[in-house]
Structure formats: C-alpha cells, structure tokens
Design goal:
The complex is a heterodimer of chains A (about 190) and B (about 290). Chain A contains 7 helices and 8 strands, in the order H-E-H-E-E-E-H-E-H-E-H-E-H-E-H. By secondary structure, chain A is α/β, with parallel strands linked by helices. Chain A is globular and about 65 Å long. In chain A, about 50% of the residues are buried. By secondary structure, chain B is α+β, with helices and mostly antiparallel strands. Chain B has 2 domains: about 1-15 and about 60-140 and about 275-290, 60s Ribosomal Protein L30, Chain: A (2-Layer Sandwich); about 145-270, no CATH class. Chain B is about 40% helix and about 20% strand. In chain B, the strands form 2 sheets. A 5-stranded mixed sheet of chain B has the order 2-1-3-8-9. In chain B, helix 4 links the parallel strand 1 and strand 2. The longest helix of chain B is centred in the first third of the chain and has 19 residues, at about 40-55. Classes of the chains: A alpha/beta (about 190), B alpha+beta (about 290). The interface between A and B is large, with 46 and 51 residues.
C-alpha cells in the first residue's frame, strides 16, 4: 500500500485484502521496538505492508508450510510499540482485533497508515484465505506463534475501524457505551 | 489408562474443532436479529461459516487453542495422580495430532514448551464424586477473553457498588465496559461470589461450563442473570465490538458463603468461541461418550 491508498480508506469501509500480510505479535513488537534492527537485516521489505497481529497454527508439509488456523489476536497489547514501528518501518496497515489506542491513532494520521479489524475467532475461515505461506523470520528464536510469517492472501476480509484522518470507530462505541454505563450505575435506578 | 488417554485426546479434538449446540444456536439467533449489512451481521456470517468449516475439516476453530482447563469428577478409589499424568500425556499427543497451538511459556526462560504442558499447565481441578462415572469437562480457555476478566472486592465506591447483588451487577457491567471488543464478543460471562480470592476465580470459571439454557437454582440469581444480559446488551458494544444489539449470550452466577468482612466477586469471560466438551466414562464397562 502507498500513502495514497491509505488516504482512500475511511472508518466503516469493508475491504478484501489481496497480496501480502506479515504477522507479528508480542515478541516481534518488543524485538522491533527494543532492538531496532535495521531494515536490511529483515529478510522482507516491510514498507507498505500490513502487519497482522496473529499467532497462527502452521503445519510443515513436504510441499512447504500450510496455515491451519489464523485469526487475529488482541491488538491493544502492542499499543506501546506500534506507533514507532509504523514510523520506522513504514508499514501502511496494522490489522488485528479489538482496536488500538490514542498513540497508534495519532501515528496513523502522522505517517499514513490504517487499522484494520478482522474477525476474532474465525481462524479456519481466515486461514482458508491464505493462498500460500511464502516465508518466515525468527522461527527458531521466537517459535511458531510469535514468528514473523509472510502470508499471501486472497479476499481476506477486514473492516477499517481507525483511519488516517484521526477517526476511530472504537472511540465512538466506547463513548456511547460509557454514557449507557453511567445510567446503569446510578445509585437508585428504578427498574 | 491408554484407553482413557486416547479418549482424552478425542475430548480435546471435540472441544477444539466444534462448538456446543447451545452456543451455535445462540449465535444463529443473534445473526437473525442483527441489521442486514451491519458490521455485526457481516462478522456473524463469517463466524457461522467458520464453525461449519472447522467441523468439516476437523481443524481448531480458533488459532488460540487457549489454556486447557480440566474439571474432573473422580469416583471413589480411582487415583487422582494417575488421572493427572494421563491428562498430561493426552495433552502432548493432542497438541501434536490435532494440531493445537502450543501455548505453555516458561516464566523464567520465556521458552514455549511446545506441547502445552508445563508447571501448572494444563490447569486440572479434581474432585471426588459419589457417582459411578468418571466425568471430565474440558474448557479451552482463549486468552483474549481470559485477559478481560476482573476480580472485585466490594464495596467499591467508584462504581457505587455495595455488598449486595446490585453491587455484583455493577461489577459485571464495569468488566464488559472496560473489555469493549477486545475479548471477542458476544461474551458468555461467569460470575463467582464468595469469601476468598482463589475460591471465587475458580467458581466463576466453573459457571462457564453451564449450558446457556440452564436455569439457576436460585430464582433471585436467575432473575439477576437475565437482567444483567439486558444491561450488557444495552451497552451497544456488539459482536466483535463494532456495534450491535447483542454483546452477551449468557450470564451465569455461582455463590459460596462469605466472611462477614469480605465480599469478593470474580468475573470470568468467554469469547463467542466457547469451547467446552464433556466426557462421561463408565467405570464398569470402560465405555465412554463425548459431547459438547
């Protein structure tokens, strides 16, 4: 994705992704954040890619790796790392579930990136949209769950829930639920 | 014991690759009620397709095969130690064969054991029963939803929550509000109330074994469960947290006696992919059945 592609996306858009996803969850984020490996030491070009918060089940077959199950993990756990990773590695999409916070929302706007929400728990459905597992990095060191997998996907569904214009569907839903919660917590509510 | 070990592997397979009928039908109901074309409806149709795809291809329906939590009821005379070691062996085989994602990570070395076993992993609760059958309940507790669980000590001023059932209701609402969509709603919510921290956390998890359509034996709690479902749904968080009419499929409350000074409330939350299965093993014939 380019910056221009990102600017075409708005909160609420449903997208079907074609192309490459790069997985990364807790360990990869702390590694990129703390060790700051230079781009040339990473075997894939992260610029313009989508970083998918996912710890898949991958099977090794004689024909190569196969994705058995690959749904999203909770993105908020990597909130403190994501903004700098967006800035330094030039990723154009972060994808996971549950949404992310202020710091990431700010980075999306500043560096031109979107947050894509896919469907938690739908691991078989999503794995079936992975056409090929085309590479892996840090498998030995991090293990299957935490390694960086390169997945070639076709019609992989997601919803834009945070865009590069500072809008977040999660903020909107949180605000609305907070108003209802306040009413429900009132000391002497009738009903 | 080899026969039992193989049966536990099968129990794992059932729990990981299919959902209980009551949960599936609850999700279908939610799907019918959501507005066509909404985020919730879109997500639910993918979720339902995912469930049938997992069953058809016998693959784990979620890549997070969770923390396996066993609740075992053992007839008098059967060795608890032997049950424990059989469960551990079955876990190693199930992880390799199904396959399950290995999730047991050493706190000190950060190494994943690779076979879902380790210190206190899987979690195994064993109780003795007067019954003739060995009954093993297995829950594959996904960690997205485990992470949003909360423990409360009442009274709690910030929620205006006093030491009563009204206070308990407020705790549940606070938990769900804070969770938003992070734990894969619609949620199934287990609540445990009692005297000590360790006791209520187990009690709340045990509630998640109850079928969605079962009725609490205490009418006052049954009414409270229904009321909390309505309140939680009114928060509008919805399926996968992107808005919608249903945020909770069920609320189940369990109680113990408490100390005069203490009123602990624990909330355990399950994601929509509520993976549980039960094996009933006849001690006389060594015949068993597995259901979920």
């Amino acid at each position: 994705m380019t910056r221009k592609d990102v600017l075409d996306l708005h909160v609420g858009d449903v997208v079907l992704i074609q192309g490459l996803l790069v997985t990364g969850r807790d360990k990869l984020h702390t590694y990129l954040f703390n060790e700051r490996p230079p781009k040339e030491r990473i075997p894939f070009n992260l610029e313009g890619t989508i970083l998918y918060h996912c710890g898949p089940i991958i099977e090794k077959t004689p024909q190569g790796y196969r994705c058995i199950a690959g749904g999203p993990t909770t993105s908020m756990r990597v909130e403190m790392y994501e903004s700098r990773i967006i800035e330094e590695y030039g990723i154009r999409g972060a994808m996971g579930k549950g949404g992310m916070g202020r710091r990431t929302l700010h980075a999306l706007k500043e560096f031109g990136c979107v947050y894509l929400h896919t469907i938690g728990g739908a691991a078989v459905y999503l794995a079936d949209r992975v056409k090929r597992v085309s590479g892996v990095w840090k498998l030995e060191e991090f293990g299957m769950t935490e390694a960086m997998w390169i997945l070639e996907v076709n019609d992989f569904p997601a919803i834009v829930t945070m865009d590069a214009f500072g809008k977040s569907l999660h903020d909107k839903i949180e605000r609305k639920s907070r108003t209802v919660l306040k009413e429900l917590l009132e000391p002497h509510r009738v009903g | 014991m080899i026969h039992l070990r193989n049966a536990i592997v099968e129990l794992y397979r059932k729990a990981a690759t299919s959902l209980p009928a009551d949960v599936v039908s609850a999700l279908q109901n939610v799907h019918r009620k959501e507005k066509k074309g909404s985020n919730a409806a879109l997500a639910l149709s993918v979720m339902l397709e995912n469930i049938s795809g997992a069953v058809k291809t016998v693959r784990p329906l979620c890549q997070d095969t969770g923390v396996p939590v066993f609740f075992v009821r053992v007839p008098v005379g059967l060795s608890h130690l032997q049950i424990r070691s059989t469960v551990i062996k079955a876990t190693q085989i199930a992880t390799r064969e199904i396959p399950l994602r290995p999730n047991a990570v050493d706190i000190l070395t950060e190494k994943n054991s690779g076979d879902n076993t380790g210190i206190g992993f899987p979690v195994i609760y064993i109780d003795e029963t007067k019954g003739r059958n060995l009954v093993i309940d297995l829950m594959l507790k996904g960690s997205g939803s485990e992470n949003i669980g909360q423990l409360y000590k009442l009274p709690l001023e910030e929620l205006h929550a006093e030491r009563d059932l009204e206070g308990v209701r407020k705790c549940v609402l606070d938990t769900v509000y804070k969770a938003q969509g992070k734990g894969c709603p619609p949620y199934i919510i287990g609540v445990g109330i009692g005297a000590t921290k360790d006791q209520v956390t187990r009690l709340s998890k045990e509630q998640l074994l109850r079928r969605l359509d079962d009725v609490n034996r205490y009418p006052v709690l049954s009414r409270l469960e229904k009321r909390i479902i309505d309140d939680v749904n009114s928060l509008g968080i919805g399926t996968i947290g992107l808005g919608g009419r249903t945020t909770s499929l069920g609320v189940k409350i369990g109680i113990n006696h408490r100390h005069p000074a203490s009123y602990f409330v624990d909330i355990s939350v399950s994601c929509w992919a509520d993976r549980r299965a039960r094996m009933i093993w006849d001690m006389k014939s060594s015949k068993y059945k597995i259901q979920n």
